[in-house]
Amino acid sequence: MTTAVVVPAYRVAQYRRYVAGEAVSVLGDQVWYVALSWATVQLASPGVAGVVLALSAVPRLLLMVLGGPLADRFDARALMVGSDALRAVVMVAAAGIALVATDLWLLVAVALIFGTVDAVFMPAAGSLRPRLLETEQLSDGAALRELGIRAALTLGAPLGGALVTVGGLALACAVNAVTFVLSLLAIRTLRPRPLERVERREPYGAALRAGLRYLLSHRMLRPLLLVTLLFNIGFVGPMNIGLALLSEDRGWGAPGIGFLLAGFGVGAAVGALVMLRVRVRRHIGIGIALGAVGEAVGIAGATLAPNLGLAVASTVVVGLLGGPMGIMCASLTQANTDDAFRGRVSSVQALLSLGVTPLVMGLVGVLAGQFGTTAAMLGSAVVEASAALPCLLLARLRRASIS
Asked: Which residues cross the membrane (predicted)?
């Protein structure tokens, strides 16, 4: 009896195209938000820029969950291509407007339209991704995607800054339109595994409720969602605002923030590279728990470090363990989600990841103001460590496997 050899995900040509297309799309998102903030500051003030950026995120967050049933009801690839095409059109229009006149209300209007169109992309991407791979490839497939997204997030902000410096908002929007076209060209070539036959006459509201019932009643996905929520609550505050506050308190200044974030980025990249070669198939809950505790130790270490060097080393640990933890959570979720609900599950996960970010950032800021940065950071570390509890206490999660 012979056993079929499953090649690593990075050797699957169409999956590489998928990762490239999604990464380029995320790169375009980052360029746009940097260009939007720059243009708003030129017209008004940093405070107004913050309000505009917050407004631009509202339709994206609201429609992200609402986009889940669409991804399950219609062709996910077509939705991704359509989102890329519409965002390219919006960016071309924004570039033309910027050449003529840049009024604040026009920027707000473009931001709202962009956020609305952008919201469809992520649930559709989450629905499509598992259908390009075999179950045994989900772990290293998630690792390859992590590398692609990490590269896009790292390059997007500097690229956006360089573009607006050279040619202002018009050039940034024009180049951004090109990124969405490139993403479109990559994604339209994909040939995912066909979905099982799904009844599509269910009303939209009923489909949304069915997705929530599916998540809340699933013995594996329900605790995984709790782990994801605790992980993100403990993580996004320190990484998005905590390190800046810490660097200010310690006198490390702007260079210190850069070094701390760079340490995290290097650690996350190394962790993803390791996961490309190491397939964790059994006792995944234990691996996730170790990652959560390790990240908590890294956050606490950065907080209590007596100098910048040790703080940077601690953020490397956060990235090194956080990357694999996220990869294991993603692959276990994909392996346990029925095809009929992939879009809705992906949309809720995205909300738990992106939706909590502004709320947690605000909470960490308030706590730091009331009790000090150290207390706020250590509190976040405790929440991060608590994500390990469901993984260790629930046998079904502790012994979970991907096969």
From this structure: 47-67, 88-114, 162-187, 223-246, 252-276, 283-302, 308-330, 350-369, 375-395
